Amino acid sequence: MKHRKTYHSMEIKAKDNKVFLIEGPVEKQVIEECIFDEGLLAFRPPPQQKKALLKVADLDESRIIVAREDNKIVGYAIYLYPDPLERWSEVELDNLLELGAIEVSANYRGYQIAKHLLKVSMMDEAMEDYIIITTEYYWHWDLRGTGLSIWEYRDVMEKVMKTGGLEWYATDDPEICSHPANCLMARIGKRVSPDAVHEFNRVRFKHKYMF
């Protein structure tokens, strides 16, 4: 499958006069030329996270959407093929991508940056050719930093994902089923074939169908 990518951007001016550029999919050069805000700590220290994104940018299927204030990246969303060790890669669909990470700096919360990252992600008309999934596990959530309960965080997360058209999908995946707050969310593009949808449904339920 040829991965068509069309760049889109959106400028957001906040009430405190901060201006953010949400853009993507971006080229590797954009990431190279930017610094990462020190509050981007969810996965690894900012310098190491920048290196990780540069590696992801080399993957043909990857899509990286960034939010930046001038040349400082304050948030990002990454789409790529599921990890080969995950069940979602078993169907070998070349049009199934995972929202592998979405992070906003703790220093820039309250600007609805995550929602805008997803909105810009879906501006690309080519996304109608893909099944986009995200697996959400409560142990990855910043409950301490936000002060939210598990269910409050889950509610916020679902609302954010819905801005990108992702909806809740049932599954018998053991990790997701290990806690009721965990969930699978997905967006099935308008041009995705019935055969691809069938394969996605098959991998959602490896033991039996539950619709």
UniProtKB/TrEMBL annotation:
GO terms for molecular function: acetoin dehydrogenase (NAD+) activity; acyltransferase activity, transferring groups other than amino-acyl groups. It holds the Pfam family Acetyltransf_1. InterPro entries: AcuA, Acyl_CoA_acyltransferase, GNAT_dom. One of its GO terms (biological process) is acetoin catabolic process. Gene3D superfamilies: 3.40.630.30. Residues 22-211 form the N-acetyltransferase domain. This is Acetoin utilization protein AcuA. It comes from the Bacteria. Signal peptide: none annotated.
